[in-house]
Sequence to fold (530 residues):
Amino acid sequence: MLQRATINSVQEKFILSRDEVPFVPKVQQGKTFFSYGRTFYKAPTTRLYGRVHIDRGNTFILNESSFQGLFEIARTCRTPLHTSSRSSIGSSMSSLQFYQAFKQEILIPRNKSIPEAFKSASELLVADRGGFVYEPKVGIHDNTSEVDFSSMYPSLMVNNNISAETVLCKCCPDSHLRIPDLNYNICEKRIGVVPKALKLVVTKRLRYKKLKEETTDSKLKEIYDNRQIALKWILVTCFGYLGYRNSKFGTIDGHIGVCALGRDAFLRAARMSESQGFEVLHGIVDSLWLKKDDATLEEYKSLCQKVSKDIAVPLNFEGRYKWIVFLPSKMHPNIGVSNRYYGVMESGKLKVRGIEVRKHDTPRFIYNAQMEMINIFSTANNSKEFMEKIPEALNVVKAYRQKMLNGEVPIEDLIISKHLSKNPNHYKQHISQVIAAEQLIKEGAEVNAGKNVHFVFTDSTHKRFERRVKAEQLLDKGINPDTRKYLQLLYSSAANLLSFCNYTEETVQDSLRAYQNKKLENYFSTKPLC
Fold:
């Protein structure tokens, strides 16, 4: 709007601020940055004088937890509402730490000056490790429940006084507070800025979760839930931010110390579970999937109470599954993958990780098909009923296949979103998102690293790159999608759900071909795969 006002020489009349001051055009550029293995693009900020201006397309917290979460972040971290909406979680958390340091009359360093302690190669081997993970047992399982530590790493940071000025402090070399495996001393004379700031967030989140459980008002439940979700993101980020190079109160030694404390707590919880007769099917850093035939809810709750008391971090019973499927690696079918599973709890809640319905680049056509298959499986009460519903689920694949062949799928349901990790001209290969980005640049659009590019496959194997895809903004009426490519994606999504019992794209297609001669149910009775 500013650009159009300038072009038409009416910028003096273009006023959106509360006062009568017109916009002063600024030459601002967005910035691309790298965080947690992913490239992001942040658009330039335009603020309105006298008004709270929130850009819905450029705010993380608002999208995750609505305005209630945004209010909570602004209030807790002491930042203006419009600033909170555009700030990263790390920036909001820094503001909270600065406020805490100000209250304690601690000078905030201009630059981080605490270096990492020297370590030998053998010390690095022990110290520089992440959280503990149990390899999942591939297959479908009954009688399985999930237990989960509540805010595990933040709680460990608060309970063990982890901060830049407390880990390996010079005032307490003989401290009784020690980090397991590393034997680092922790200060006993003062509480650090980081644990003091985090204690407020941990306490408030637990309070909101308790209020949510106690109230019967659905509107209040939603408010409490959105506020605890916003605080959750601060707690999720605080551990990584502890090791961030520009964090004023961060420390690498504290960061790896929290990992060591986490591994120790996690293994103790697993050993206590096994001593109570539970089998550990899977475990990721702060969550355990336990199996015990005929185990009662009281047994699980009793276990959680014992672990919580021993470790001083709340262990919660998340629920019992009707069935849960741990999926194998695509490259190695006999090896489980920690973040690829799906299941249905007795409450009816679906839990899905690592498959197409959880990925941001999945077109709606594939999402709808896979979700419909999962909904069919969700009606099964155990693994036996699950297996009996495979033919019914593959009926869904057949129906979506026919829709695609008949040209009944709307073009908007075939749009794929891909992330640009670098500028289009820096790629060596003409992959799909690069081709679409080049099409947009040719039309005068600005495309930067960190942005998402949306396109439709038109002829994925064409010799001329520009014919393979079409950018969403350039789609015309009568565009013909690449039917073969989308059917391949459909078969792949079905095979992923059933890969634990040896399904592949080829076997899915074989089962659909069986319709030509006999019913699918008969096909499975003569050719079982699982």
In short: Residues 523-528 have pLDDT under 50 and may be disordered. The CA atoms of residues 9 and 90 lie 40 Å apart.
